[in-house]
Amino acid sequence: MQKISLLIMGILSLTFLHAQPPVIKHVVLIGCDGFGAYAVPDADMPNLKKLMREGSSSLSARSVLPSSSAVNWASMLMGAGPTVHGYTEWNSAVPEIPSADSSRYGLFPSIFSILKEQRPTAVSALIYSWQGIDPLIAKAATTIRVAGKDNDNFCTDTAAAIIRSKKPVLTFVHLDQPDGVGHTIGHRTPEYYKELKNVDARIGKIVAAVKDAGIADQTIILVTADHGGKGKGHGGKSLDEVQIPWVMYGPGVKKGHQLHNTIITYDTAATIAWLLKLKMPQSWRGQPVAEAMGK
Fold first, then answer.
1. Does the reported pTM lie above 0.85?
2. Residue 11 scores a pLDDT above 50
3. 12 phi and psi, to 5 degrees?
4. How many domains does the chain have?
5. Please, what is the angle between helix 46-53 and helix 190-212, to 10°?
6. Of residues 228, 214, 139, 244, the one with CA closest to residue 182
7. What is the pLDDT of residues 246-280, one digit of tens each?
8. In Å, what is the CA distance from 245 to each residue of 54, 75, 236?
9. CA 209 and chain centroid, separation
10. What is the spatial distance between Cα 48 and Cα 203, in angstroms, rounded to a whole number?
11. Rg of the Cα trace of the chain?
12. Residue 52 domain-assigned?
């Protein structure tokens, strides 16, 4: 009898660990380039902090190394690190190491490609300020694709309009700030924190668009970054460069919860796949941040 009880308890524990999230029909991923987690506590970012208060968050999530752009955007969207997907440099446009896997679109599987393969009619939207995002995601894997040409306000307004009118299943908005200020003036400077106020306003516009579209009760909003920075650069191993914010908000997400489990940027794609009930490729190494869901 004791063995049976222990077995039942084990099954229940396993079920809890892998419990499915509520029905989520839309995910909006907001990626802020060069946004170090170190900056959040002192930043004047009421919109982001509201998402944190009403959702789950971590200020100790980590990039992959090197803590640079293309390698980390690839990892975030491809569910694996550079030794698997092959993009290893700041501005990688093609894999420097042959990718360990390939989708039907000829590139390493991304969250966009698996959505397209498994749900061909689902609308997806990719809006990006930095042009280095373009070669990472196959054009055939996206429904709507807009190059913002280094204009974050244009990207924000475009993303908001698309969310209101098209209600994509998956929307990824890449914003180039505060990375630009980090490079020109420096991290941990008054100017960097001032720019974060602008970043926060853009986040607020996108959150408002989700509400305006009438899909807030079916939408998870994720806010994160590719890397942080130190001085006027990034790419190194310091925590200022490696630690990134990771914020999850929406129906079923624990409120005011500080995430304790280790989060690596490639867990973002895995979390989105889990939320949208997509089967993850075997080559992915990310794990869903299931800790964020539940009471």
1. yes
2. no
3. -65, -40
4. 1
5. 60
6. 228
7. 999 999 999 999 999 999 999 999 999 999 999 99
8. 15, 15, 17
9. 18
10. 7
11. 18
12. yes
